[in-house]
Amino acid sequence: MPLPGTGEPLSKTAVGNVEAEVFPTSASINEMTMVARRLRRHIISMIGKAGSGHPGGSLSAVEILTALYFRVLRHKPSNPNWPDRDRFILSKGHAAPVLYATLAECGYFPTAMLATLRQPDSCLQGHTDRTSTPGVEMSAGALGQGLSFGIGVALAGRLNSQSYRVHVLLGDGECDEGQVWEAAMAAAHFKLDNIVAIVDNNGLQIDGWNRDVMNLDPFNEKWQAFGWHVIEVDGHDLTQLINAFNQAKLIKGQPTVIIAHTIKGKGVSFMENNPDFHGKAPTAAEVEIALRELE
Ligand SMILES: Cc1ncc(C[n+]2csc(CCOP(=O)(O)OP(=O)(O)O)c2C)c(N)n1
User: Fold this and answer.
1) To test ligand 1's pocket by mutation, which of 54, 92, 277 has the most ligand atoms within 8 angstroms of CB?
2) Given the CA of residue 61, which atom of ligand 1 is nearest to it?
3) How far apart are CA 72 and CA 65, in angstroms?
4) How big is the chain by its Cα radius of gyration, in Å?
5) What is the pLDDT of residues 180-206, one digit of tens each?
6) In 3D, which of 40, 77, 88, 46 has the Cα closest to residue 62?
């Protein structure tokens, strides 16, 4: 049986114990580390080929999506609209490449399709579009909206007695948006324990460091004051991430936020902590160097 999305035989691939259609899987940390490396290679290749896109905030979220899609979320790539699926909402929609790469690795569509990123007739646009991409839950790009959207989905689940859980990935710069805090207040008000917010806390936004543009500190305490259970992790440590998601399942009567400390551009030396690569494609020569670093 081929590994979803790759056409490679399962026994010889990174997630060797994964059976297509069974998510979450029991993939080991080593196997997921190899998946994460492939995701980074996809991100570099597709943005390089497109000639535009957002590598920095895609690379910082790789382990977060790897942990979620391979070890946490119940989902079926062959049936993206399965009503009982756990939901993943990418609020920082400019990081679409990391979501597309993950969906492809899970088998939602062929990995070859990643090369069509940002082409006019492709279903993989620069920002997510739920009407055209299998597995995409929310059309995003205008920052600040995903947590509100997720709260609606979580409330609907409660109303309909469905057991799915909702995960929303926010950027830390995105948390400058007032709507994020209105949503944070609402989730606590409704005692939503079926929603988890994850903040990709890479410290950078479009123009530089958050601390210079709009200081978010004390960030942990702010979420607590809004009524959330707060967990802080190293956002590149798959074990810490999986443990945090499992811990969040045990929290009752309040929402959980996972503040994931990450590095923007993680994995590519000249992109790490470099605001220039927030929204700039690597040149062909840079793609070559980056892919060599990610071998
Ligand atoms: C409402 C809105 N304002 C501004 C932008 C332009 N914009 C795109 S990405 C970005 C920075 C986001 O920073 P962060 O959330 O930290 O993302 P990351 O660093 O993880 O890529 C901005 C301001 C936008 N997409 N939407």
Assistant:
1) 92
2) 20
3) 10
4) 18
5) 999 999 999 999 999 999 999 999 999
6) 40
